[in-house]
Design goal:
Helix content is 70%, strand content 0%. It has 13 helices and no strands.
Length: 282
């Protein structure tokens, strides 16, 4: 199997909404974003699938060394072999990959966030930097497009956090800021309760409405930041945004039933949203 095929399989196998946006890119850009996303999946899987924290740290340290070796001209892992021939042309730097690794390392050392400012620092590493790399790969003329990409990455990461509240809690992680849990009088142990009505209290509903409203506001802010000159090239990012925002709306309509299930969109619906965005340009 070639490195390119390995990266393709890794990206497609994740089932992510991102993959549907990649389909509309020209081949060189599609190859670059696929390889980069495969790297992100490899690193993220270390944290999600390795249950011994020390083993996970060792694996992440290996990845950090692999990034250094790859940018020195000697990649070993097939994902890095697929990525490196494309990195320079698409402004993918070692610091971007290191930031993603650092963000994943935080999941091993920090499972609570005092406030939204602290959560934003984490989101910057695991989503904002990813958005920055993606917007470079898609093609941009304006520096302001990077600001759009970071804001959009934050909105999409908050959507993930809302969707995965119950699943994350069972892994010992609570991304909802502590001061906001306190504000709405929601206790951490309540997030482990899967059964209505106790788990889905009015307090929990109010907390989740607050989270969703903030995510929607961030989507709007991101769209306003995107320069007109880059709207055409940034269509894949808009596709991802529309898929994620549709998911957020579905969670809202379902009454934030996120403690016992994981809401998702069908592949056909994701493809339709991506195609519609491509046609409409927004």
């Amino acid at each position: 199997m070639s490195p390119e095929q390995y990266a393709q399989n890794k990206a497609a196998g994740s089932g992510s909404s991102f993959y549907y946006a990649f389909m509309f890119l020209p081949p060189p850009r599609r190859a670059a974003i696929t390889a980069f996303y495969a790297f992100c999946r490899e690193v993220d899987d270390v944290v999600d699938e390795v249950h011994d924290p020390q083993v996970a740290r060792t694996k992440l340290a290996w990845w950090r060394n692999e990034v250094a070796q790859a940018y020195a001209g000697a990649p070993h892992h097939p994902v890095m072999q697929a990525l490196m021939p494309l990195a320079a042309d698409h402004a993918i730097e070692a610091r971007h990959l290191d930031a993603v690794i650092t963000g994943c390392e935080m999941d091993l050392t920090q499972n609570r966030f005092l406030d939204f400012t602290a959560l934003q620092g984490y989101c910057h590493l695991v989503a904002g930097v990813v958005g920055e790399v993606a917007c470079n790969i898609f093609g941009r003329q304006e520096a302001a497009t990077v600001d759009y990409a970071h804001k959009l990455g934050l909105a999409m990461q908050l959507t993930n956090i809302i969707r995965d509240v119950g699943e994350d809690a069972r892994r010992g992680r609570i991304y909802l800021p502590i001061n906001e849990l306190q504000r709405f009088d929601v206790k951490a142990h309540e997030l482990l309760k899967r059964d209505a009505p106790w788990g889905y209290s009015d307090r929990f509903q109010a907390l989740m409405h607050f989270q969703a409203e903030r995510a929607h506001a961030l989507y709007d802010e991101a769209f306003d930041l995107l320069p007109e000159a880059d709207r055409t090239t940034q269509k894949p990012g808009l596709m991802m945004a529309n898929i994620y925002r549709t998911l957020l709306v579905e969670i809202e309509r379902g009454g934030f039933q996120v403690l016992h299930q994981r809401t998702s969109l069908t592949p056909l619906r994701k493809l339709w949203i991506a195609a519609r965005t491509h046609w409409r340009g927004r």
